[in-house]
Design brief:
The protein has 246 residues and is an alpha/beta fold. It contains nine helices and ten strands. 36% of the residues lie in helices and 30% in strands. The two termini are 20 Å apart. 36% of the residues are buried.
């Protein structure tokens, strides 16, 4: 039996609004095993991204408030972790690709500076790759996402790259160091269908090579049908269906 990587139990999150609290997540239960590809689908505003931000420890509090529930990553409760433990989990355990590559990259820093920050913070905690120099890791990360001329791209600013190239840089940021779980939040939303297909094929290849589990958030049931092993359907903050994709 595959090892359980992520286990969310009865997660309930409220947002403070004028006049009280709005229930955003209502007793969400979700699990992912090692190497598994899981889909999370639902209409806009149903709580998909909020769930994943809570897992990553980046949910703004306030206005968010975790009312109840537990999130276990490799057997450790994320909600009970100290700040230093959460940072280490992000460095070596979980990565997230956000849906808007333009907003995810800082326009005033080069790709080299932004990638180097990621590598530098995780260098000491990733023994398997510590023998490689930071520059080698940067080049390899860009090569892994099939970007042409990675040496030139390192010195570019985000605005000098196309939408597809920026999304590939965001993926490179997420996989620059070996991780157990990759959360892909609608990675093809801002791209045309041919580039979206390339991105999804790329993620599939990287997940297989690095033996990563993936949670794919998407509006497209066609993508989910072809790409995932299991799927969760979310509606109004609750998981209403869960089964094998088939």
């Amino acid at each position: 039996m595959s090892q359980l990587i992520l286990d969310i139990k009865n997660l309930t999150v409220n947002f403070r609004v004028y006049g009280g609290y709005l229930k955003v997540l209502n007793e969400v239960n979700l699990s992912v095993t090692q190497g598994e590809k899981v889909g999370l689908v639902g209409e806009t505003g149903c709580g998909k991204t909020t769930t994943m931000k809570t897992v990553m420890g980046i949910l703004p509090q306030p206005p968010g408030k975790i009312v109840q529930g537990e999130i276990f990553f490799q057997g450790k409760n994320v909600l009970a972790m100290k700040k230093s433990e959460i940072e280490k989990m992000r460095q070596t355990g979980i990565s997230m690709i956000f849906q808007d590559p333009t907003a995810a990259l800082n326009p005033v820093f080069t790709i080299r500076q932004q990638l180097y920050d990621v590598v530098q913070h995780s260098q000491s905690s990733d023994d398997g790759q510590s023998r490689l120099s930071a520059y080698d890791v940067l080049i390899r990360a860009l090569q892994d996402v099939s970007l042409p001329d990675p040496k030139r791209i390192l010195d570019n600013y985000p605005l000098q790259l196309s939408g597809g190239m920026r999304q590939r840089v965001c993926i490179a940021l997420a996989i620059a160091r070996s991780k157990k779980l990759l959360i892909a939040d609608e990675p093809g939303t801002s791209l045309d269908v041919t580039i979206q297909d390339q991105i999804l094929r790329l993620l599939d290849q990287i997940a297989a090579e690095k033996q990563m589990a993936i949670i794919l958030i998407s509006h497209s049931l066609g993508v989910i049908r072809e790409w995932t092993n299991r799927v969760y359907v979310m509606y109004a903050g609750s998981i209403v269906e869960e089964s094998t994709t088939e």
